[in-house]
Amino acid sequence: MSIDQLIATRLQSLRKAQGLSLEQLASRSDVSKAMISKIERQDSSPSASLLGRLAASLGVSLAQLLAEDNAQSAPLRPLAQQEVWQDPDIGYLRRQVTAHEEHGGPDLVEITLPAGARVSYPGWSHQAYRQRLWMVEGSLNIDYGAQNYGLSAGDALTFGVDLPITFSNPGEHPCRYLLVMSDK
After folding, report:
1. pLDDT tens by residue, 120-175
2. CA atoms of 169 and 113, how far apart (whole Å)
């Protein structure tokens, strides 16, 4: 299954599981009904910010939109089995390193953010979760609510998704970081 098929299937499944119409999800997420429909039909590939708004309004992590649920993950997850998604607008690249486990377990995600790129997410209004970020290479600025952080290779930051957050790469080269997401 392609990543666009996976996003379409997961979005529609999560929306219907919550008993939401396209119009209700559009109202919650501030994403047009037409755009949500296009994503579900695989007629459009969403941006990272748009996916963030949809995930926040559904009360799920981005991993739940971008990865298949596994009841139990295998001890080895080869690189070829890790889902990769790229933002069509800014080239943001997201690799789901560990399998997303339906009933808990941390998610490990690798992000590559191109030079000068910026991606913003709203605060999750319900079912917020925690993230731990470790910078692998480059530099990254993070605006988390009213707080601002400048990170360089080797730095680590712990934060939630309860407040609006913006990730921006001020450097001349892509930056790469790992995110570990957990319920607590």
Report:
1. 999 887 777 889 999 999 999 999 999 999 999 999 999 998 999 999 999 999 99
2. 7
Tokens for 115?
């030079």
Cα distance between residue 56 and residue 132, in whole Å: 18
Measured between alpha carbons, how far is 54 from 122 in angstroms, rounded to an integer?
A: 10
CA distance linking residue 60 with residue 38, whole number of Å: 20
Residue for token pair 């892509």: 174
Phi, psi of 27 (to 5 degrees): -65, -45
Maximum mean pLDDT: which of 5-9, 107-111, 128-132: 107-111
In degrees rounded to 5, what are phi and psi of residue 16? -70, -35
Residue 128 backbone dihedrals phi, psi, to 5 degrees: -70, 155
